[in-house]
Amino acid sequence: MSDADSRARARAIELARGDRLLCIVGPTASGKTELALATCEAVGGEIVSADSVQIYRGFDIGSGKPTREEAARARHHLVDTHDPLDSIDAAGWAKLAEAAIEDIRSRGKIPIVCGGTFFWVRALVLGLVEAPAADPAIRARHRALADEKGRAALHEELARVDPASAQRLHPNDFVRVSRALEVHELSGRTMSDWQASHGFKTTRFDAAMIGLEHDPAGLTTRIGARVDRWLAEGWLDEVRALLDAGYAEARAMGSVGYAEVRTHLEGTLSRDELRDAIVRSTRVFARRQRTWLNSAAVEWL
Prior knowledge:
Layout: H1 3-16, E1 21-25, H2 32-43, E2 45-49, H3 68-73, E3 76-77, H4 90-106, E4 110-114, H5 118-126, H6 136-149, H7 151-161, H8 163-168, H9 174-187, H10 191-198, E5 207-211, H11 216-232, H12 235-244, H13 258-265, H14 271-293, E6 298-300
Parallel strand pairs: 1-4, 1-5, 2-3, 2-4, 5-6
Helix pairs in contact: 1-2, 4-5, 6-7, 6-9, 7-9, 11-14, 12-13
């Protein structure tokens, strides 16, 4: 274990033993899972997953879902709890996470929130914007557009009316892109404007947020090694089985990595190109995660 890893572990254990809710956040492939597991073992903790792909059954390898050995080291909550076609958003997850935290504490254990879906963590800690309610007709129209012209077309429309939200959201994130467009259509205000007005100033949990710091080159190396491992472990077969089971339009199928594997299986991305395509997409996603986290009081270790 490096000196940096030892310092990060010591700091996480110190915070977990305090009064605040420990949230381990940060870019993908930065080592959040191992830090959370080690902290749980030291303090008697349980993990509340804040990962928008791990929550779905069947999306295992490419989401970095806990292995059997990792699951034995600490109990995990909100992993494998939903069918891939279920709709789970930040508000729904926050309610489930709050219930899990209450349950963990009632048993004398320490909850540790861990995951890279920072919007979900923010919803738990600071609440959500009270924007207009969903409109099924608008969402159906957006779905039809995405099916006809691709998700990138929907993202381009968002970039036209709300550049700030478009910069924050990945083109494959149909649900959030559609929601941002929907809010603009219903209210005449952009989602970014709604969020700026909200300010996320109402604290629902007194939380300590920590993240693991890596230089860009080091993080890229970690991402590449992880992609190689996942491909060797059967990621292609997993996605093929999910597609055969009727989950082509599942939200998680549009996530980073799964989208590229699906494109390969559909014949428009070669096997030789696949690995580098996933690494590139993951690097972009990691940069976006870091941008989101820059607006929060994260202690970087």
